[in-house]
Amino acid sequence: MIQIARSFLERIERAAEVAYPEECCGLLVGRRGAADDILVTRVAESANVTTGDARTSFEVDPRVLLALMKEFRGRDDDIVGLYHSHPDHSAEPSARDLDRVFEPDLVWLITAVAQGRSVETRAHVYEPEGPHFRAVALRATMGEEGGQAS
Ligand SMILES: [Zn+2]
Asked: 93 CA to middle of ligand 1, Å?
């Protein structure tokens, strides 16, 4: 299960609306537990630096990634996933997303945006045996440290 503070989720969904009709993107920082258990402790927004069509593709700014890696050296926090939006498409990973898996352990958070409004956010992990994405439960919590249920 992916646990994320409701405020983080709202920030991602707002970013998806602001970026519409283009895709927004960023990285998820957190801690891993057993199996699919991930606690998101921070959201690192990025500009979409894709060289393609930003309405159908995204690229996290490598400077955002590098800055985080430098900061986390020797600490418990780590990059646990990434997020992006699907303008006028579902929250399911696309074939293009599958082609772009560069780090199999990351969780993919995708926000579907319909006519400028965020309608749904879903979490998936990569299943190398498929290869395909597998949906994982996403739980929005009240506290930013993922404490009690909302
Ligand atoms: Zn996508």
From this structure: 5
Segments making up each domain of the chain, as ranges: 2-141
CA angle 14, 64, 18 (to 5 degrees): 20
Contacts by 129-132 with C-beta closer than 8 Å and gap 24+? 131/98, 131/101, 132/98
CA of 74 to the centre of ligand 1 (A): 31
CB 34 within 8 A of CB 70: no
Place of tokens 């045996």: 129
Instruction: State the distance from the centre of ligand 1 to the C-alpha of 145, rounded, in angstroms.
Output: 27
CATH number of 2-141: 3.40.140.10
The mean pLDDT of 36-62, rounded to a whole number, is: 96
pLDDT digits (tens, 9 = 90+) for 22-42: 999 999 999 998 888 999 999
